[in-house]
Amino acid sequence: MGWGKICLIFLVLISVCGCTQKQHIPMTTTLSCTPPYIKVGNDCCLDEDNDNSCDRDKPTTSTLAMSTSSSTTSTLVMDSCMNVCRIKYDQTGECVRSGAECHSSIKHIEKDGNKFCKAESRVYDSCCCIKATPKEPETTTMVTLVGSYEVVSSEDKSIKAMDKSFSEYVSANEIAKLPTNIRKRYKIIVPSDVSKEQLKATLTQIVEDETSKNRDIDEIIIFAYGRKEDINFGVYTYGRVEWCPNGDWGGVTERIASSNDRSSYQYVFDIRDKVGAAQSGRPTERDFEIYTALDKALFAEPDTAEEIINKRIASQYGITETELTDIYIKVLVYQMT
To answer: Is the dihedral of CA 80, 85, 86, 88 positive or negative?
Structure first.
């Protein structure tokens, strides 16, 4: 084979190999690039992702594409797009890369074979950034404690923690070895204008304060009253809370008393209906005074006939016995509801 033919073959091979990356157009010819090639100066270069920049100028992406599968490359492109949206658009919504397949539920618009971002999105670095739907701010309602309260009574009501009935224990020595269920009972006075939320928060805070001072306390019960004169009343007049295992007063087992395991503890509230309600139905201070005077007299003089005490108290306050009875019942009902 002559040297002329060898040179001709060599030139043809060079021309064919060069076409795999770019088209070379003689300077004397009008440059026209066929997609996916784009015109750059006097050359055509490959732009497979249709972002108007030559693939050869993206060494990182090209390197990644050669060393990873197509699915991995797609993920990397998507991650890059999301970073653009987060950093430049300050959004955490979804996005897609313009001119590529959609990687999310966000749809692009196709026109004349080209893909565009939706109207409500913004384009950054060929990314369609979709504005995220703003979340409603979480609101936290802060419940304050009552303005002032007074603990007027604290009693120790401790008993032995038993897993079975008293009669099932065989000896006094066995009972003596049982752990103690440390019980505390408190009585407090709160303002008459306290709300239900404030009363609950205050009762809870007292439990937390007392158990932080003595972690061996196993059960607590608190009675809330509106007046000091009522603390000897048979039941609480404003509310009550029990702090105990599973909300079961008396549910302290030998294990709980020994280990101080509080994982099952609950607060059980009973708040009177009148708490936080309008004060229009509240007895007057004079009504409370008359009620208290009669109640104390009946308690202090158990051997005196009730009719004699009623007549004396009614005369003392300048009212009839019928009015005395009506006032007493009015206050008593209010205390119980």
So the answer is: positive
256 and 172, same structural domain?
yes
Asked whether residue 117 falls in the same domain as residue 75, the answer is: yes
- Same domain flag for 175 and 246: yes
pLDDT tier, 128 (very low <50, low <70, confident <90, very high otherwise): low
- Cα distance between residue 58 and residue 62, in whole Å: 6
Nearest CA-CA partner of 115 in 98, 91, 135: 98
- Please report, for residues 80, 127, 246, the alpha-carbon distance to residue 49 in angstroms, rounded to integers and kept in the order given: 14, 12, 63
Residues 69 and 122 in one domain: yes
pLDDT at residue 9 tops 70: no
Residue at 256 is within a domain: yes
pLDDT of residue 224: 96
Range of 97's domain? 59-130
With CA atoms as reference, report the closest residue to 120 among 95, 83, 92, 88: 95
pTM confidence score: 0.56
What DSSP string runs through 68-129? S-HHHHHHHHHHHHHHHHHHHS---S-EEETTS---SSPPPEEETTEEE--TTEEEETTEEE
Residues 190 and 273 in one domain: yes
Q: Which residue, 163, 262, 254, is CA-closest to 217?
A: 262
Is there a single domain that holds both residue 324 and residue 235?
no
Joined tokens for residue 194: 């306290």
Among the candidates 237, 256, 277, a domain finishes at 277
Contact 248, 230 (CB under 8 A): no
69 confidence band (pLDDT: 50, 70, 90): very low
Residue 193 CB neighbour total at 10 angstroms: 12
Tell me which of 100-114, 209-223, 262-276, 280-294 is least confident: 100-114
Cis peptide before 36 (omega within 30 of 0): yes
- How many angstroms separate the CA atoms of 141 and 310, rounded? 50
